[in-house]
């Protein structure tokens, strides 16, 4: 179970600032690979699929919220068949895409790129054939805010 809460409060001359993934004021990043994303980017990708307001979906993707693919329902208590929203819809796709790229499994990573609605420029399509690290770097370049 993912139980990570991050709230930073800063009071100063510009007022109160809050760092909160649900408000897109916090980014997740991997320094080693040089990429970053916000929760809002993933909520925008999944918004039409779930037919749910962006703010509500961002809340579902954070905190203790679970989704059942079979029941197509969200729950705050989880249970059998429910997976943590952040893990299921954010981390798992990233991990699967990276693994497919590193393993040079073109069919898998092209399917994932399509599902994640990541569009490649024509010039970048040539790099798909190279696979491995160069494709991982291409993904990083495309997906970094």
UniProtKB/TrEMBL annotation:
Q: What is the name attached to this protein's record? A: Uncharacterized protein
Q: Which residues cross the membrane?
A: none
> What is the originating organism of this protein?
Rotaria sordida
Q: Does Electron transport count among this protein's keywords?
A: no
UniProtKB keywords: Cytoplasm, Elongation factor, Protein biosynthesis
GO CC terms in record? cytosol; ribonucleoprotein complex
Cite the InterPro entries for this sequence. Answer: P-loop_NTPase (IPR027417)
**GO MF annotations in UniProt:** GTPase activity; ribosome binding; translation elongation factor activity
């Amino acid at each position: 179970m993912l139980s990570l809460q991050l709230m930073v409060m800063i009071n100063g001359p510009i007022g109160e600032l809050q760092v909160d993934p649900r408000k897109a004021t916090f980014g997740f990043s991997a320094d080693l690979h040089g990429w970053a994303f916000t929760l809002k980017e993933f909520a925008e990708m999944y918004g039409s699929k779930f037919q749910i307001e962006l703010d509500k979906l961002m809340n579902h993707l954070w905190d203790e919220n679970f989704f059942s693919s079979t029941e197509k329902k969200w729950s705050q208590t989880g249970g059998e068949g429910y997976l943590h929203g952040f893990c299921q819809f954010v981390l798992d796709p990233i991990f699967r895409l990276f693994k497919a790229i590193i393993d040079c499994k073109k069919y898998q990573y092209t399917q994932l790129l399509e599902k994640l609605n990541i569009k490649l420029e024509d010039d970048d399509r040539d790099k798909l054939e190279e696979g491995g690290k160069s494709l991982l770097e291409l993904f990083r370049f495309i997906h970094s805010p």
